[in-house]
Amino acid sequence: MNTHDTETNKRMTFAIISHPDAGKTTITEKLLLFGGAIHIAGAVKSGKTSRTAVSDFMKMEQDRGISISTSVMGFEYGGRKINLLDTPGHADFSEDTYRGLSAVDSALMVVDSVKGVEERTRQLCVVCRMRATPITTFVNKLDREGKDPMELLDEIERELAVEVRPVTWPIGQGKLFKGVYNLVEKKLLLFRPGEDQLPTDTFRIDSLDDPRLDERVGDSRARQLREDVAMITGIYPPL
Hints:
Distance between the termini: 30 Å
Strand content: 15-25%
CATH topology of the largest domain: Rossmann fold
Order of helices and strands: HEHHHEEHEHEHEEEEHH
Low-confidence stretches: none
Largest sheet: 5 strands, mixed
Mean pLDDT: 81
CATH class of the largest domain: Alpha Beta
CATH superfamily of the largest domain: P-loop containing nucleotide triphosphate hydrolases
Radius of gyration: 19 Å
Shape: globular
Helix content: 25-40%
Structural class: alpha/beta
């Protein structure tokens, strides 16, 4: 393998797609936070960050609170150069989104947990399927009163004709949302409203019978998580 191929293989490009107002730019910002490109959430929207981590920078985008053109942001992570494409969600700017999808390795599809699968999401999923682009789905706004997570999984499979494999699972919902449990890493990530820096309240539990689970999220939510995970394990094959 020559030097050019080596450098090319170190680069990964992801498009972030969704129906308007599903929280696409906010998710982009969180990825930049975890990737070390920014150090506090809100820096992207406020413009207090480097040019490689800027989304929705046009005045019209800021005035309307939407993405009009595709923003490209990059950071180094795990020995790779990661490029994020924050694509326009509105149909009026579809051409820019379609061009972006032609140049990515994978797509991150953001779904609003309150509204579920929406029309623009269906259209973009079809484009990804035509291009054989792998899709990772991120369900957003779990701290709001939304659809039942199991029903939402069924809706995603039915509406988008995809097979889902849950990686994380919510603990509670709406005002009772406590965080997520990583089914693969067996790790608990607890949610703190308004947190704008890297989360620190994470810990691994080797078994869902670990009493620390009940202590941190409450008996009822711990019991519900155990029931949900047992059901998920029985329905969906492992990732």
